[in-house]
Design goal:
With 261 residues, the protein is an alpha+beta fold. 30% of the residues lie in helices and 26% in strands. The chain folds into two domains: 152 residues, Uridine Diphospho-n-acetylenolpyruvylglucosamine Reductase, domain 3 (2-Layer Sandwich); 98 residues, Enolase-like, domain 1, CATH 3.30.390. It contains eight helices and twelve strands. Bound molecules: flavin-adenine dinucleotide.
Length: 261
Amino acid sequence: MQWIDISTFKALRQMLAEDVKILGGGTKLLQEGPLPNRVMDLSSLPIEQGLYQAPDGSVHIGPQTTLEDLLNWPDTPNDIKRVLKKMGAVPFRNLATVIGRLANREDISDLYPVMRLYQTQVTFVTPITGVPQERPLTWESPELPEAWLEVVIPPKTSAYPLVEFLKFGKSSQSRTLLNVTAGLQPVPATPFWTLTLIVSGITPAPQEWHWTESGEAIFSVVTGQLGERCFSVTADPFECHLIRSYWDILAQRLEERLGGI
Ligand SMILES: Cc1cc2nc3c(=O)[nH]c(=O)nc-3n(C[C@H](O)[C@H](O)[C@H](O)COP(=O)(O)OP(=O)(O)OC[C@H]3O[C@@H](n4cnc5c(N)ncnc54)[C@H](O)[C@@H]3O)c2cc1C
């Protein structure tokens, strides 16, 4: 395997065009499947590599930021910290990068749902333009190879969502098989709330469902409609039963937090 050190955007663009894989912590790229012939490392690129808060309050996460860095950073929102704590053990979190986890579209990710609910933005480069562009964090695989330079959690201008999640694995040692994450956010200047449920593990891409209702109605409406939504994407009654049971727990936690606001 050849290791390529990239120090200019010109070189990055060239290597992307040649489909050279980007190395984060290597916990997926160097451990699963055949090793790539060539990998490139972005650590010499003249960009912010770590974690910082901009004057507008947005949180910027560069390519060398590990899961453990984000977990231990004082300004990381608590709901994101709670997810990070449930991801593997410390030695793994010291290696795996935030960007490597989000750019890697395995059929399940514990970090994607909470970062999506926080309306995270991605700054990336493709071989076509070679200049940094921005877009919201989504699951869809891009048509062109991308180098992610940073992910940005926007400033807390409106309230951050209340986030609760549950993950299900075959045993405590195994990877997650199902992750159900719920985010509750007020609709500004109305008595309504938007509830977003992101379910990953039952289909190759996470399912994202939304409801907007008044605070009194939202939990019962979701409970009433969840079965139908679930059976529209899987015929497996066990998965739908699990998702509904998880929702009951998440709804109870969210209702308690809502009562405390
Ligand atoms: C022991 C262990 C426990 C785990 N536990 C969990 C868990 O609890 N929850 C969970 O969700 N996942 C878990 N995982 C999966 C893990 O999160 C993935 O392996 C993840 O991709 C790790 O990030 P990395 O930095 O090591 O990525 P790498 O392996 O380096 O790269 C992964 C992918 O991301 C791409 N990539 C990396 N950096 C960039 C960049 N800057 N721009 C564009 N693409 C990039 C790579 O090219 C590659 O395709 C676990 C894995 C292990 C080995």
